[in-house]
Each structure stands twice: as C-alpha cells, then as structure tokens.
C-alpha cells in the first residue's frame, strides 16, 4: 500500500506528520518501504527526540495542510491508531510507524539550522475511501505559498533579507486569487508576510 500512496521512489510527496503533541505538513520521500523526511527544529523535532511514534496522513486538502503549518487549527475529528498510541485525523488514510532520527545541521541561505533526518518504518496502514478532489492550480499555488511564506518568516526572525522569497509570496498569492482561490488561510499567510515586512 505504501507504494500506492507514494508511487515514485525518490520523489517528494507532501503529507501531514503527527507526533506526540503536534501536527505539521512535511515532505516525505519513499526509499523502498521506508519513508524519509527532514524536520527542522520546532515542536515536531522535540516530540521525535522524546517519542519515536509517528503517523503520516495522506491529505488531499491543501487548505488543511497549509493551515496547520501556520498553527491555524480547523475543527478536526481524531480517532485511535492501530499500533501506536497517537491519534490520527478521521477521514484520511494513514501510516503508523516509528521514526529513527539523527540530529543534523542544515546550512543554506537561512544560515545553519538544527534538524532531524528521520526514517519511518511503517508498522500499520489504514485506508479510507473518499471521493477524490479534482486537481486545482489554485491549490498548487497555495501549497507553494505556504512553503515559501514559512521560509520567509524564518528569514525575518533571523534578520535575513529575503527579497526573492517576498516576490514569490506576492506572486503566488496573486495567482491563488486569480485562479479563484477563496480560503482565508491565504489572507492569513499574506498578511503575516506583509505585517512582519512592515515591522522589520
Ligand atoms: C507544504 C509544506 C511542507 C512543509 N514541509 C516541511 C518539511 O518537510 N520539514 C520541515 O521542517 N518543515 C516543513 N514545513 C514547515 C513546517 O510546517 C513548519 O513551519 C515547521 O517546520 C514545523 O514546526 P513545528 O514542528 O513547530 O510545528 C512545510 C510547510 C508547508 C506549508
């Protein structure tokens, strides 16, 4: 089933990671039957250092994924997992497992950042049948907006000028609106990017 969720080895897929106290979107890459991901220092990072249990959920709702990256929590229903002691969101397929993580330092234009490189060994999988959502360019723009805006906020916090990220955020927000996107999370992200820009 892992191969059906993530058909291409080495390709990055965006999913939801659930750890003992947090939910956040991450990119995972399948290598054989293992799911690999990198998580920068934050709540999930500290959770995984204490407790290796993790759940990966395959979520086709971009608004939900992006909202969780900005700590906007919509009403969600949680249910029990099969093997691990965590709870998962009802309505989406999931993969339970134990993440073996190694500390690392990642250096890029944002400077040096603490991170964990993790390998998740699946121990249980659950599949929920839902009507598939049609692909939307507005959703694609929102996903990218979320990724670039979260990096922009890190740059701001570190006092690093990031004009190219700002340009990307502005462009993606405009694209999202042009393509008919209506989610409030886009406004939240855009305003957050602009407000911090004015304060900085
Ligand atoms: C679509 C998307 C994918 C993301 N992928 C990752 C990722 O692979 N690793 C990561 O550390 N942060 C990723 N982020 C950023 C996190 O959601 C978030 O900013 C932070 O890293 C998690 O902090 P937390 O563990 O304190 O919630 C992603 C954000 C978005 C919108």
UniProtKB/TrEMBL annotation:
Any single Pfam family the record assigns to this protein: DUF447_N
Protein name: DUF447 family protein
Annotated TM spans: none
Origin species: Thermococcus chitonophagus
InterPro entries: DUF447_C, DUF447_N, Split_barrel_FMN-bd, UCP018747
Residues covered by the DUF447 domain: 13-128, 136-186
Coiled coil stretches, renumbered: none
């Amino acid at each position: 089933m892992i191969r059906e969720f993530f058909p291409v080895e080495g390709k990055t897929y965006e999913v939801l990671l659930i750890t003992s106290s947090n939910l956040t979107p991450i990119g995972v890459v399948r290598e054989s039957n293992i799911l690999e991901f990198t998580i920068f220092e934050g709540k999930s990072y500290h959770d995984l250092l204490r407790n290796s249990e993790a759940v990966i959920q395959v979520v086709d709702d971009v608004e939900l994924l992006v909202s969780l990256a900005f700590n906007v929590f919509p009403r969600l229903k949680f249910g029990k997992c099969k093997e691990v002691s965590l709870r998962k969101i009802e309505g989406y397929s999931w993969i339970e497992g134990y993440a073996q993580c190694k500390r690392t330092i990642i250096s890029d234009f944002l400077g040096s950042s603490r991170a964990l490189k993790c390998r998740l060994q699946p121990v249980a999988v659950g599949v929920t049948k839902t009507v598939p959502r049609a692909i939307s360019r507005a959703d694609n723009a929102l996903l990218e907006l979320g990724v670039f805006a979260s990096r922009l906020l890190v740059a701001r916090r570190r006092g690093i000028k990031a004009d190219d990220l700002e340009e990307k955020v502005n462009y993606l927000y405009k694209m999202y609106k042009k393509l008919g996107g209506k989610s409030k999370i886009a406004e939240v992200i855009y305003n957050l990017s602009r407000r911090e820009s004015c304060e900085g």
